[in-house]
């Protein structure tokens, strides 16, 4: 037994990694030592005082502040919708309300017209962003009582497309084309049409596409493959 205790003590004594954190006060035999006097001018890794970087919390939108001792890191509460060093940007702050079935947003990035050069530059930037809808990540937040409605549809002049819609009040369906094949991703969530905030994230990878709906998800082994020639009826599985 004594040998085991000695072995444990030796293990503990062999720990040589230094402390990361605050070291406050050093008293030896009742004498308070001036710990500042022990600091070497060459030790840039030691700073005076112990000022927590997370008090008060510099992070926004309910983000967690992680203490890094002389620095901090904000861990966003909603990593999809909150971005920035302090999680200060909330993409859900700008919103629209559609009040009838005929209300919609429409943008045609192919319909460039003669405009001043500064307007053309803005249009070109927006056009490239809109083209990315076909093969890049998409994030949408919505609230509705609708049980069947189209949320997003986009296509180009080759018939490449993405289509996001609500089905039967309990399904979020994402359709897109992988070459001449129509791909279906469906996530079932019974709260879709209950006015609850629904966050839909489409994540595109080289070999997979994922759809996240709040805490649920669906994945398919298809990345993105866009058509580069026009065809009036390109789909091998139009029943999708």
TrEMBL record:
Q: Which UniProt keywords apply?
A: Disulfide bond, EGF-like domain
Q: Where is the EGF-like domain?
A: 51-88
Residues of the signal sequence? Answer: none
Task: State the CDD domains in the record.
Answer: EGF_CA
Q: Please name the SUPFAM superfamilies in this protein's record.
A: Concanavalin A-like lectins/glucanases (SSF49899), EGF/Laminin (SSF57196)
The record's listing under InterPro entries reads: ConA-like_dom_sf, EGF, Laminin_G, Neurexin-related_CASP
So which domain of life are we looking at? Eukaryota
Query: PROSITE patterns this protein is in?
Result: EGF_3
Which Gene Ontology CC terms are recorded? membrane
Pfam families attached here? EGF (PF00008), Laminin_G_2 (PF02210)
Among PANTHER family, the record links this protein to:
AXOTACTIN, PIKACHURIN-LIKE PROTEIN
Q: What is this protein called?
A: EGF-like domain-containing protein
